[in-house]
Amino acid sequence: MQDPLSPQTVTIVQISPEKAAVELSMVDVAVAAFGVTGVIMAAALVAGLLAGALFIWYRSRHAVSIIEERGHQHNLFRV
After folding, report:
1. How far apart are CA 51 and CA 54, in angstroms?
2. Alpha-carbon Rg for the chain in angstroms
3. Under a CB-based contact definition with an 8 Å cutoff, are residues 69 and 63 in contact?
4. Measured between alpha carbons, how far is residue 47 from residues 33, 42, 43, 51 in Å?
């Protein structure tokens, strides 16, 4: 640590890149963000459709209620 009363030396660093950095416009950023969001939305859509198809398939194979299981017999006291 330097003494606050001692003289300070300043070093100036100048960086001159050989090739200028590519600037991104707002359109480029929006397109990139939509790409990521689009992938997430497509994955959610596929997962929802798959879950819905599995639910419909399962419900078509199994009875929904006791009444349906008993062949639509509404006498619930029947054993």
Report:
1. 5
2. 34
3. yes
4. 21, 9, 6, 6
Query: DSSP states of 11-75 as a string?
Result: -------SSPPPPPPHHHHHHHHHHHHHHHHHHHHHHHHHHHHHHHHHHHHS-SSHHHHTTS---
Sequence spans of domains, the chain: 26-69
Question: pTM value?
Answer: 0.49
Average pLDDT over residues 64-78: 71
**6 DSSP 8-state letter:** S
- Please report which helix (H) or strand (E) contains residue 2, including its range: none
The mean of the pLDDT values for the chain is 82
